[in-house]
């Protein structure tokens, strides 16, 4: 069987951490966090800080694990090492059929939503979302190197609007007094909030994605040194950027205006700061930001079935473990990722079409399920890393576990949590017959 080449360096790894994490979440979750916080900016910023702290300490623990284990698919490798092949298989199945494709579907929709808004159209969001889905899966299938270069480029580009909003919005807010007003006057048009736990869960989507950088573990040059650095320093950079960006928004729009603008809040801020033409130009940067995140998620999704089949597990492992000799891509595995992403895009569409009667938030619930997996790994680190120092072996994993429990508690309070849990359970059970190694 042909092996994957080590074609990515540290900048691609950092670009995956920063590029996947900084994407749509910071843009379209800004109003959600504020609503869950009851319209109170202090509570909202606390949620952003708490979510960021959870991400940083979690990435720190995983950086320690990454220095010891290096195979095909980071998270799956770690769980397999900790609890055996069957446990690793179940995690890989969850990532392949639930985690990756749900986030891919949401990101395709968000990217299309901002694109349609920029073009001034009222219809065509779902068609464009499907087109984005097809386009980036094709790029990752036929030119994985190009996909990696796009990831680096999109990461650099997406920092432009965030930096401008943070700096100019922050300065103007301090001069005009809007920042002080946002801190002291809560929004009036919030009927009910979800509390700090639900607000923190909303930030979890914005902070999620860094773990997908471990999916290119086998394709990184000097992975044992490159990946830990990318995980830790990339996550710290993300938190710093997010906090400045959110303060920049509060310096331009009041809390009521942020909630009223909804997903268009960043576009409105850019228009106010730079005028309509400048706002339009920078809105393109927002779209590129979202598409960069979509590409990074698809990079992980395209390798989902490959990570299962490379272990001799799952249906037809001899087929899904193939690497295309011309492109050095996991093309057949990517086909499964595309099918599942299309399925979850249909589920996401059902929310807006009123199919379910309530809102099944597949942008947040899969993340909470992933944190259950994280807790299991923290326990393994505490039990087995006997040569590690006190902070790395005990304190960091315990802090990360506490943060994970807080995220899970917020998810339990979400609408249709039980429904999503049962659907996920059915998908996991469907993979049990293929657990035996061939």
Topology:
Elements: H1 10-21, H2 25-28, H3 30-36, H4 41-66, H5 74-83, H6 85-119, H7 125-142, H8 144-176, H9 178-184, H10 196-207, H11 223-250, H12 255-261, H13 265-301, H14 304-309, H15 317-320, H16 331-353, H17 365-384, H18 390-412, H19 417-430
Helix pairs in contact: 1-8, 1-11, 1-13, 3-10, 3-12, 4-10, 4-11, 4-18, 5-6, 5-17, 6-7, 6-13, 6-16, 6-17, 7-8, 7-13, 7-16, 8-11, 8-13, 10-18, 17-18
3D structure, described in words:
The protein is mainly α and 438 residues long. It has helices at 10-21, 25-28, 30-36, 41-66, 74-83, 85-119, 125-142, 144-176, 178-184, 196-207, 223-250, 255-261, 265-301, 304-309, 317-320, 331-353, 365-384, 390-412, 417-430. The chain has a single domain, classed as Amino acid/polyamine transporter I (Up-down Bundle). The two termini are 15 Å apart. The chain is globular and about 65 Å long. Helix content is 74%, strand content 0%. It is built from 19 helices and no strands.
CATH classification, class level: Mainly Alpha
Shape: globular
Ends: how far apart?
A: 15 Å
Number of domains: 1
Portion of residues in beta strands equals: under 5%
């Amino acid at each position: 069987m042909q092996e994957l080449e080590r074609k990515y360096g540290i900048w691609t790894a950092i670009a995956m951490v920063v590029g996947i994490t900084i994407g749509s979440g910071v843009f379209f979750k800004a109003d959600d966090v504020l609503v869950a916080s009851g319209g109170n900016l202090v509570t909202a910023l606390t949620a952003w800080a708490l979510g960021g702290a959870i991400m940083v300490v979690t990435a720190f623990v995983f950086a320690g694990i990454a220095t010891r284990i290096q195979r095909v698919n980071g998270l799956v490798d770690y769980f397999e090492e900790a609890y055996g092949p069957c446990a690793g298989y179940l995690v890989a199945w969850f990532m392949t059929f639930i985690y990756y494709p749900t986030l891919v579907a949401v990101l395709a929709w968000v990217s299309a939503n901002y694109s349609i808004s920029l073009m001034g159209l009222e219809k065509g969001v779902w068609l464009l979302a499907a087109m984005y889905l097809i386009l980036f899966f094709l790029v990752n299938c036929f030119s994985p190197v190009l996909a990696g270069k796009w990831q680096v480029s999109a990461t650099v580009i997406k920092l432009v609007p965030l930096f401008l909003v943070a700096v100019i919005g922050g300065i103007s807010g301090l001069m005009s007094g809007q920042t002080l007003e946002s801190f002291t006057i809560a929004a009036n048009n919030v009927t009910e909030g979800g509390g700090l736990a639900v607000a923190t869960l909303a930030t979890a989507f914005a902070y999620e994605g860094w773990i997908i950088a471990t999916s290119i573990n086998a394709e990184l040059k000097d992975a044992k040194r490159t990946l830990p650095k990318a995980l830790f320093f990339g996550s710290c950079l993300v938190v710093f950027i997010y906090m400045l960006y959110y303060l920049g928004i509060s310096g331009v729009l009041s809390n009521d205006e942020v909630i009223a603008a909804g997903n268009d809040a960043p576009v409105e801020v850019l228009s106010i700061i730079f005028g309509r033409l400048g706002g339009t130009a920078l809105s393109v940067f927002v779209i590129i930001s979202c598409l960069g995140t979509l590409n990074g998620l698809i990079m992980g999704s395209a390798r989902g079935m490959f990570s299962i089949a490379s272990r001799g597990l799952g249906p037809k492992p001899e087929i899904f473990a193939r690497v295309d000799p011309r492109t050095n891509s996991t093309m057949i595995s990517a086909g499964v990722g595309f099918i599942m992403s299309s399925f979850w895009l249909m589920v996401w569409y059902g929310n807006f079409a009123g199919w379910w009667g309530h809102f099944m938030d597949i942008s947040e619930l899969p993340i909470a399920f992933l944190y259950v997996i994280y807790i299991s790994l923290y326990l393994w680190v505490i039990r087995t890393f006997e040569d590690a120092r006190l902070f790395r072996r005990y304190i960091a994993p315990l802090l990360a576990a506490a943060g994970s429990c807080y995220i899970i508690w917020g998810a339990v309070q979400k609408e249709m949590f039980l429904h999503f849990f049962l659907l996920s359970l059915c998908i996991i059970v469907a993979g049990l017959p293929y657990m035996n190694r061939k």
